[in-house]
Amino acid sequence: MENISIEGSHTNFFVPSVDFNFETGICILSGESFLEDTIEFYDPLVQWLEEYTSEIKKPITFEIKLTYFNTSTSRSILDLLNILKEYEDDGGEVTVNWHYDEDDIDMEEDIEDYMLDTGLEINMIPFDEDTD
Amino acid sequence: MNTINKKMSLGQSLFSEEIRISYKGPVDGKIITFLADYIYVINELSEAATKKIFKIFFELAENISKYSSEKIKLKNGKEVGTGTIILKETVKNFILVTGNPIKNKDLIPVMENSKNINNLDHEELRKIKREVRKDNTVERDSPNIGLIAVALTSGNPLDIEINPIDEDSSYFSLAVKVDK
Does A54 have pLDDT greater than 80? Predict the structure, then answer.
């Protein structure tokens, strides 16, 4: 199994930064997500997570710090969180931390909706965009 | 007088207003990200309004790019939809107006969905958004998912206007308000 490291970019589309590390079990998804082909970008992340949860089987910490994602991306995030929930139900140790701008009420509601959809507990961590 | 001009005339008669962005042409990823970045530097926008307009803008611009029936072929071979995007400021609101031709066959589901959206309160919209997002039979970039997200973010009804062009297509215009 290999780590995934993608440097985010902000040019023709908004590509999020990805750092999935199987040795530490820490997975970070950050930045903005508006992609030319959402499935092409997120499918390898979904496959990576499926492999980690079926073969590595160590604790996993999932850190999300997305300031914007479009509706197409929102379904891919749901796919990732559903895998984490299945892993937790099978006895895996899962921590999900979602960092969001404390003034972004829409994002706060999105996170709450993901908790309702998946049954996964997500630690909501507000930050001040002006100082953080 | 086309739909957008009519809407603008109506707006001008009721409020003083300023145009903050006006664009007409092909809407591809490069244009979308350029205009989205520009939203962040408009002085008149508060931080809260900027975030909302940014999110709404993406959904509406993506709909033009994918569903406008007027396409332009770029040098890279890709076909992108063309349309109009206007951001204007009135005394009480910012209003994002988009317009593009659309095939009538694509219009009916959008109209039905928009009518439903405008009849739902915030919590009902959240519920519908969750249901649609979980439904794998709905395309992930369906314009209807985007419109639900737009209505949720805006907190105001979607103002839709249709003007028939011919028997196959119509001019579709959508105005979304964001309170100051």
Answer: yes
Determine the pLDDT at residue A129: 72
Does residue A132 form part of some domain? no
Interface contact B29-A10, CB threshold 8 A: no
Average pLDDT for chain B: 88
Q: Is A104 on the interface with B (CB under 8 A)?
A: yes
Give CA–CA dist B134/B132, Å, rounded: 5
Find residue A124's DSSP bridge partners. A98
Domain enclosing residue A10, as ranges: 4-127
Q: Answer yes or no: is A20 within a domain.
A: yes
Q: Give me the mean pLDDT over the A23-52 stretch.
A: 97
Mutate to test the interface with A, among B129, B148, B154 (most CBs of A within 10 A): B129
Answer whether residue A35 is part of any domain.
yes
More confident residue, A63 or B44: A63
Q: Helix (H) and strand (E) counts for chain B?
A: 6, 6
Q: With residue A33 as reference, give the H or E element that holds it.
A: strand A26-33
| Chain A residues with CB-CB distance to B29 below 8 A | 12-13, 34, 36
Domain residue limits at B9: 3-179
**The total number of structural domains that make up chain A:** 1
